[in-house]
Design goal:
With 160 residues, the protein is of the alpha+beta class. It is 37% helix and 17% strand. The protein is elongated and about 85 Å long.
Length: 160
């Protein structure tokens, strides 16, 4: 009978008995906690773009144009905080919860320390990717395509 029980265990092993299941669950929780601890080990959220590190030495001038993104749409209180640190509001960018400012380089670190600030990056110039010249002919071409779409072919007769 004993041999039969051993063979039965080999055929239908009990994979999850209480002790094994508890040990595996404890191991999984420990791994999750370790992963969270490692990801938060730095403790400081980097709010200042790496590109602005080059500006800190002052070689690019006393002020720099930046985009400051806030944790919410900036209000007059937010703009006043930046102005109190020497910043000048240039453009409100409510769509990205931010604004374009000219700020003293020396105040970048203190602005990044503000709990309402999400991120500070330099105001980079934008340019289109197209090399095509869309001059006055664009309007002419658009009108021509629309006219052909309506069945107009440039003939004065009503019969096409």
């Amino acid at each position: 009978m004993r041999r039969f029980e051993r063979e039965e265990d080999l055929i239908h092993p009990q994979v999850f008995n209480a002790a094994t299941w508890g040990a595996r669950m404890l191991l999984a929780i420990a791994i999750c906690l370790l992963a969270v601890g490692v990801s938060l080990a730095d403790g400081k959220k980097h709010k200042l773009s790496n590109d602005l590190e080059a500006f800190k030495d002052g070689s690019n001038g006393p002020t720099v144009d930046v985009i400051i993104q806030f944790n919410q749409v900036p209000t007059d209180v937010h703009h006043q905080k930046v102005q109190n640190k020497g910043g000048v509001l240039k453009t409100k960018l409510d769509a990205i919860m931010g604004a374009h400012y000219s700020v003293p380089v020396a105040s970048l670190s203190s602005l990044a320390g503000d709990p309402d600030v999400a991120y500070i990056s330099p105001n980079r110039p934008l340019s289109g990717t197209s090399t095509l010249d869309y001059g006055a002919e664009t309007g002419q071409c658009t009108r021509r395509v629309a006219a052909v779409g309506f069945g107009w072919h440039g003939h004065r007769s009503s019969g096409h």
